[in-house]
Design a protein that fits this description.
The structure holds 3 protein chains of 3 kinds. Chain A is mainly beta. Helix content of chain A is about 10%, strand content about 35%. Classes of the chains: A mainly beta, B alpha/beta, C alpha+beta. At the B-C interface, helix 1, helix 5, helix 7, helix 9 and strand 17 of B face strand 7, helix 2, helix 3, helix 12 and helix 13 of C.
């Protein structure tokens, strides 16, 4: 799989670490509810098809990003940075 | 007289093998059953078999969306063991192992259960301490375990690299002699055969597309072959758990589906006598009766329903195999494939009543599904028949995650890809 | 007469360069350019192998990778290479080739007795028997069955050969250098694309050299012109002997290159390629289909185009009396081509009543007999064909007449059609599509960026295949935004619409209706009766057929078997082939050696090795090194004759008595900077860091989101907005990743940056009552208790080396950690060692470090297992109630704070024997009735301070059980001894020594 890293360009997924489901919203640090946290930590929709995922470019720019990827075809359709460097999503491929 | 025996093989052989009956019938679904098992894989078929055999519930249908055994039962590395640290797992898998020991006879089908031993190699002293902790836990749970030093390992495994030149020299190992391998497809066919002969309807090419609800209660399924009613419906669909449960309105579960690759080489004369696992990484290998080295390692590491993996893991697993067996450099990889693992959030399974009335869930098998097959079916059948879990699966609840009652062998927390 | 060398012909051999290799010890004369197979045929060796199940004699069946029969073993001892296809090995002088899977010899193989029991060895018979007697019944039979199974024998010695890995990137990868692939590469290349063109064969051209003409040109001229054009283009890389075996996600393809068959000259043997291509042209050709009829596996039966390849490429006739059996016009042309090459074609058998007149006339003129309207119904001869039986065939009714006749022959060539090689397309595409007119499966919808060309799309005619290749090459270039040459561009729109035609006028007949053992899968000995038995027993899905009969699962992956099995199964079930479908194709297309998949990552190079800057010093000092993750660290510095225990006890004792020095370079070090650094650390750790004064360090704990303990370490405040965090060696990378995750996902508003300094900084820990005296001697700063108090941090210099000193103690002694830039650490260390001499300083390793911390009850990885909580380890004082931090809400769940959980305790041996790590704590005094595990020993050692064996353990409800007497059960090592549960702080519990 090629991931279109917004910083480094298209790179093999081997350079990245998988960070899991990006559709689950992390509670704020002030959230005290164990249920809210448990839902975030344990419960997954686990879709077959389009998915939003966190990937970390550990052997590259070390940015965390949200990657749009299909769990059935493994087709990667985009990646966008999150955090301080967030910017609009880039399209994959140079075709 | 048993349907399958040396005598029937001889008798049919002399008459051109024309008289064999189908291994299981191909019935059309009836409008209703006492119980329906969704998923014609190892666990679903085993559940149906034990419902019929142990609980005399024989008006049962097993629904398989494609061909029987198309999922993980036919795409694993065939290892059977009960070498677990945590009591809940150890006791469950040991019961499963005991069922394995009598399985060919119970099914009248040779599943080729070969108790050749599973050897975990330790590659540093701290790991050997961990193995001792686990092996002692096994012994205290009544499970066989032996701690081996390199000289004993050398005798057991010719060809294994025990030299100090190895990047991670072997310092010892934990052996479970009663563990071993079985012929995976035969397990599916054997359970199907035996369940069928007890009256279970095994219905292939019958996909569950929806669930029938009366209020909150599940009372039947909508399938590609029509509506089928049953007061009790068990779901045992491994990597498809989230997708199937979504059709019952359950949108979130503590499960992620991940792809696990497995590999087999060209057939060779006997080379590796037991199952060997590598300690400084994650790789397990054995040699099939046909002669191929069957091996696997870690998940590819991302959510997947593709039954197809990628090159980094191929390289990683082959590297760890050659680290153990440097004599296998010229051995050629013949085939690789991928299975979709139902990875739970603590690495241990779920066998439970619910989450809706009338529904029962069997999932979260991670890497461990094959060896669990008879035990899982046995416990799930008990849970369905009695409407409550057996002591052996009482801890494998769906609620334990939110409660924090993890059964986490690897200690890696709620990160499914690391279990 | 068996096979022989023709007086002329042979495009690949050099008749002036003879060579000699051995086959089962017997010398075989060949010529440079021969394959093992061509030389064996030329030398008259018909029998070369035995089949898997029935040990039937087998000969050479093909001239390529589809070979099901002729598997041999190359070399001996460590160099043994089993299961090699004789048809692809290029022969070399002195090579030792062995037959395999036969005992005592290839010609007299006792395993053949299995054939007598064939009625009982039908598909799946082993599932029905070998079950008893007894519960371990199968294991009685298994050893015998395992010895009988398998094919070749691998060595038990390490493979001495060298493999390597390479990466390649290109615009267009063309897989297959037959006419279609060559044309595609040329067109794409002319458009300006960077092309890699590869083929598994040692020579490009595919089957072009087996054609007479391509279009209006002689085939040789066409090929020469094509190769000249390709050779002139620098942007087209040519790679021969390169087999693309797998098509992975993102247009990544795996390929294995044969560089040399043996390591005679020390070269790399095989090279693995990972090719990242923007577009791929698959031009993988087609494989000839055989007929299925009784005794169709006898040595001498082979594919017709293979015979032509042996004649034209190697100047070898596959027999002295050759019969060709075909069902289409092209088969006759092959017969004529063989006859022209000098191969004695005695007869052509064709189930159709009309033979193509022109070519039939040509053959009749040379004395070949024509048996149109006939089929082959049987083969005579065991180790070689002696004769065949043929009989009239009625195509309309599909029946064979009883009135047959016998033809003497020693080779029978089969031409029943073609199987497109769609494996790679299937790996990276939708289900293959059945084409009824072609009676074959064609590539499905692409899932990756590939185009298919040539024979794999069902285009049998070479000229059309080449034209199609050119169009497809242009289409691939256009897809990249390149402009193909005008002739190509004009046609590119038509790509994929070119005529699909299998051999002219083919009769789709595969199985000959005749009685006898007819093989579908030759290597695995799967017969037509097996296919029917599987059908009868309900194994109707093609995947079930494969698994039940093992059809297509042999080392040739059923390349000549699968399509025929589908035809037979379809006919049996009375459905069309599409209803059966194909099995899913999976990598690898051709089997690939594990050595190639591993490359150089073997032996000591299996994984990188991380050394601290002090590594060589440790070795010189006699340290025994130990792996800790990828790092190597000193375990003990044992002196002559000292045991491991004696060494660490001496080292630990010296630390408590005077001073010791140890290498702590491997600890994770993370620079945390920014105006929000303090807030950030407060959220990351369970305890508070914002209140930490500048110039002080604090021990911290961090949790995972699920509330379990993740890591621990000290973090030092260097400035208002700058901290240096240390982590455990094992978790250094994971902690950094965790911090980066939190900053990106959880709190992007925090202005903090984190940077790993693990490799940039290295250092030493000095521990013992004399450590301050030593530092005072070497450091340029005041290190008195008031100037550098407990947990104080200060920069300074040792000589010219800038250092950072922190007064931290893991051992419970007065102790310091002193870090410098990694390049200076050896000099720093040597200076400390030199200065330490007068204080009696010793270096100490991990074992002494372990026992010193054990005496103090400090936890490490053995206790922070990922299953333990802050409460379990008795560290709840560090669990802040005043602030929010990662993992807090879930850590407070009742299940995580339950006092019945396993809690950290100390363990004292009561019988003077070691309490082994990994032992369990039980109540039973008798080792035979230990009772259930109440807990387990996490780490142990001989404590010089306590003068006895001590240990830490995790014990259910342990904090309430101090003083209790239990037993340490260690059944694995036959240990069972009384212990006392105590507090985990054994030595100097109030910490007066380190505060002093």
């Amino acid at each position: 799989m090629l991931i279109p890293c917004p910083v480094c360009g298209p790179r093999d997924h081997e350079e990245f670490a998988y960070g899991g489901d990006a559709t689950v919203a992390r509670p704020t640090i002030a959230e005290q509810s164990a249920t809210a946290w448990a839902t975030f930590v344990y419960d997954r929709t686990n879709p077959k098809g389009a998915h939003q995922e966190h990937w970390h470019h550990v052997h590259g720019c070390r940015q965390w990003m949200v990657v749009s990827r299909d769990t059935e075809t493994h087709a990667v359709t985009g990646a966008r940075l999150i955090g301080a460097w967030a910017e609009p999503e880039t399209e994959p491929g140079d075709d | 007289m048993a349907e399958y025996s040396i005598w029937s093989v001889l008798r049919h052989g002399l008459t051109g093998n024309k008289g064999w009956k189908p291994t299981w019938r191909k019935p059309d679904p009836k409008p209703s059953y006492d119980a329906i098992i969704v998923g014609g894989g190892g666990h679903g078929l085993a559940t149906a078999f034990y419902l019929a055999k142990e609980h005399k519930i024989r008006n049962v249908a097993v629904l398989e969306r494609g061909w029987l055994g198309q999922g993980n039962i036919g795409r694993n590395t065939t290892i059977v063991r009960s070498n677990y640290l945590l009591d809940e797992n150890a006791q469950f898998y040991e019961w499963s192992l005991k069922l394995w020991e009598g399985l060919s006879h119970a099914l009248n089908y040779n599943v080729m259960f070969s108790q050749r031993g599973v050897l975990n190699l330790a590659n540093n002293p701290a790991q050997l301490d961990q193995f001792a902790e686990r092996g002692n836990a096994m012994r205290l749970n009544g499970i066989d375990a032996e701690l081996l030093m390199p000289d004993a390992i050398a005798k057991l495994c010719p060809g294994l690299d025990l030299s100090q030149n190895a990047r991670f020299p072997v310092v010892g190992g934990l052996l479970q002699p009663r563990a071993g391998t079985a012929r995976h497809d035969a397990v599916a066919w054997g359970f199907a055969h035996a369940a069928d002969r007890l009256g279970v309807d095994i219905i292939e090419n019958c996909e569950v597309v929806g669930f029938v609800k009366e209020g909150e209660r599940i009372t039947g399924v909508e399938t590609t072959r029509g509506r089928i009613a049953a007061p009790k419906i068990g779901v045992a669909v491994a990597g498809m758990t989230s997708e199937v449960m979504r059709r019952a309105g359950i949108t979130k579960l503590p499960i992620e589906s991940h792809v696990l690759q497995a590999f087999v080489t060209e057939p060779l004369k006997p080379l590796i006598n037991c199952v060997v696992t590598f300690g400084a990484g994650h790789m397990y290998v054995s040699q099939s009766d046909k002669g191929g080295l069957v091996f696997g390692g870690s998940l590819d590491g991302y959510n997947s329903y593709a039954q197809r993996g990628n090159l980094p893991i191929v390289h990683e697993v082959a590297t760890e195999l050659l680290a153990c067996f440097p004599n296998a450099g010229k051995v050629r990889l013949l085939r690789s494939w991928g299975g979709i693992m139902d990875m739970s959030m603590d690495g241990s399974p779920i066998i439970a009543k619910g989450p809706l009335p009338g529904l029962y869930l069997n999932s979260g098998w991670c890497y461990g599904g094959f060896k669990a097959t008879p035990g899982s079916g046995w416990c799930f059948a008990h849970t369905i028949a009695h409407d409550e879990p057996h002591a052996l699966n009482a801890a494998f609840t769906l609620e334990r995650f939110h409660e924090g009652r993890h059964i986490d062998e690897a200690g890696t927390g709620a990160t499914p890809r690391l279990h | 007469m068996p096979g022989f060398r023709l007086p002329r012909g042979g495009s690949r051999i050099d008749r002036l360069r003879p060579l000699r290799f051995t086959f089962d010890g017997r010398g075989v004369d060949g010529l440079a350019g021969d394959t093992i197979a061509s030389a064996l045929i030329a030398s008259g060796q018909t029998l070369v192998a035995r089949s898997f199940k029935y040990h039937r004699p087998r000969g050479i069946y093909s001239a390529g990778a589809e070979e099901p029969n002729a598997l041999v073993t190359l070399g001996a001892d460590a160099a043994t290479d089993p299961n090699v296809k004789a048809t692809i090995v290029e022969a070399s002088d002195g090579m030792a080739v062995h037959s395999q899977h036969a005992w005592p010899s290839l010609s007299t193989d006792l395993g053949a007795v299995n054939g007598l029991f064939a009625p009982f060895f039908a598909a799946g018979f082993y599932y029905k028997t070998f079950m008893g007697p007894g519960r371990r019944g199968w294991m009685r039979y298994e050893p015998t069955i395992r010895r009988a199974a398998g094919l070749g024998r691998a060595s038990f010695e390490p493979d001495p050969d060298r493999y390597e890995m390479a990466n390649a990137f290109c615009d267009v990868l063309v897989v297959g250098a037959g006419p279609a692939g060559l044309a595609a590469a040329l067109t794409a290349g002319q458009a300006g694309a960077h092309v890699i063109l590869c083929d598994e064969a040692p020579i490009f051209g595919g089957m072009a050299d087996l054609e007479d003409r391509i279009g209006d040109q002689p085939a040789a001229d066409w090929l020469f012109a094509m190769m000249s054009a390709l050779n002139g283009m620098k942007n087209i890389e040519q790679r021969k002997r390169l087999s693309v075996y797998g098509y992975y996600d993102g247009n990544v393809l795996g390929a294995a290159e044969r560089v040399a068959w043996d390591r005679a000259d020390g070269r790399t043997r095989q090279r693995h390629w990972r090719i990242q291509a923007r577009r791929v042209v698959l031009a993988t050709g087609a494989i000839e289909r055989p007929f299925v009829f009784p005794e169709n596996d006898r040595p001498g039966v082979m594919l017709a185009h293979a015979a032509l390849a042996y004649a034209r490429r190697y100047g070898v006739s596959v027999g002295g009396d050759v019969v060709l059996f075909t069902s289409h016009d092209d088969g006759w042309r092959t017969a004529a081509a063989l006859a022209r090459a000098g191969v004695p074609i005695r007869a052509v058998v064709d189930p159709r009543s009309d033979a193509p007149a022109e070519v039939e006339a040509e053959l009749l003129a040379t004395g070949t007999k024509s048996f149109a309207g006939h089929v082959v119904t049987a083969v005579e001869g065991r180790r070689a064909i002696k004769a065949i039986a043929i009989a009239p065939f009625d195509a309309a009714s599909g029946t064979v007449s009883d009135e047959g006749l016998r033809l003497d022959c020693d080779a029978l060539l089969l031409a029943a059609g073609w199987t497109p090689t769609i494996h790679l397309a299937s790996q990276a595409g939708g289900p293959p599509v059945h084409d009824e007119a072609l009676d074959a499966f064609l590539p499905g919808e692409p899932r990756e960026a590939w185009h298919a060309a040539g024979a794999m799309c069902g285009i049998a005619d070479t000229k059309n295949a080449a034209a199609n290749g050119a169009m497809v090459g242009a289409a691939a270039a256009e897809a990249l935004g390149l402009k193909p040459p005008r002739n190509g561009a004009r046609n590119s729109a038509k790509a994929g619409r070119s005529p699909k035609a299998m051999p002219d006028n083919r009769l789709p007949l595969i199985e000959i209706p005749a009685t006898g053992k007819a093989f579908v899968d030759l290597q695995n000995d799967v017969t037509t009766s097996d296919v029917r038995l599987a059908q009868r027993e309900g194994f109707q899905s093609v995947e079930h057929l494969k698994r039940y009969t093992t059809l297509g699962m042999a080392a040739d992956q059923g390349k000549t078997a699968n399509l025929n099995a589908i035809s037979i199964l379809a006919k049996e079930r009375g459905v069309l082939a599409p209803a059966i479908g194909t099995t899913r194709y999976r990598p690898p297309y051709n089997s690939v050696s594990l050595g190639a998949l591993v490359g150089r990552s073997r032996g000591a190079h299996m994984q990188p090795l991380r050394r601290t800057p002090l590594h060589d010093w440790h070795l010189k000092a006699g340290a025994e090194m130990i792996n800790v993750g990828l790092w190597q660290r000193p375990r003990v510095y044992a002196r002559e004759g000292e045991t491991l225990e004696a060494a660490y006890v001496r080292e630990a004792r010296q630390v408590r008595a005077a001073i010791g020095i140890t290498d702590v370079s491997t600890l994770g070090k993370i620079d945390v900077q920014g105006p929000d650094a303090a807030t950030f650390l407060d959220r990351v750790y369970t305890n508070t860091f914002s209140t930490l004064p500048i110039g002080k360090a604090r021990y911290g704990l961090m949790l995972r989101d699920d509330g379990f303990l993740f890591d621990d370490g000290t973090t030092w405040r260097l400035a208002e907005s700058r901290y240096l965090m240390t982590t455990t060696t094992a978790n250094a990378a994971l902690v950094l990743q965790h911090l980066e995750m939190l900053l990106a996902i959880a709190w992007p508003e925090l202005k903090v940056s984190v940077t790993s300094l693990t490799d940039q900084w290295a250092g030493a820990a000095l521990a013992g009552p004399k450590s301050r005296d030593l530092l005072a001697k070497v450091l340029d700063i005041d290190v008195s208790d008031s100037a550098l108090p407990f947990m104080g941090v200060k920069p300074g210099h040792v000589g010219a080396i800038p250092v950072l000193v922190a007064r931290l103690s893991f051992s419970g002694e007065l102790a310091y950690e002193i870090y410098s830039g990694a390049d200076h650490t050896l000099a720093l260390w040597e200076r400390l060692v030199e200065a330490g001499g007068e204080f009696g300083m010793v270096p100490y390793g991990l074992e002494a470090l372990g026992v010193l911390r054990l005496e103090k009850g400090h936890v490490v990885g053995s206790e922070i297992t990922g299953r333990t909580t802050v409460h379990d380890l008795g560290l709840e004082k560090m669990f802040s109630k005043k602030k929010d931090f990662v993992g807090k809400p879930l850590a407070l769940r009742p299940a995580l704070t339950d006092p019945g959980r396993k809690q950290l305790v100390g363990v004292k041996s009561l019988d003077g024997k070691p309490v082994m790590a990994g032992a369990h704590l039980v109540t039973g005094a008798d080792s035979k009735t230990p009772g259930p595990s109440e807990g387990h020993v996490t780490s142990m050692g001989y404590s010089p301070a306590m003068e006895g064996y001590i240990a830490l353990a995790l014990l259910k409800g342990g904090r309430q059980r101090h003083g209790e007497k239990l037993y340490a059960a260690d059944p694995l090592r036959d240990g069972h001894g009384p212990v006392e549960i105590v507090a985990p702080h054994f030595f100097d519990p109030d910490g007066s020594r380190m505060h002093g």
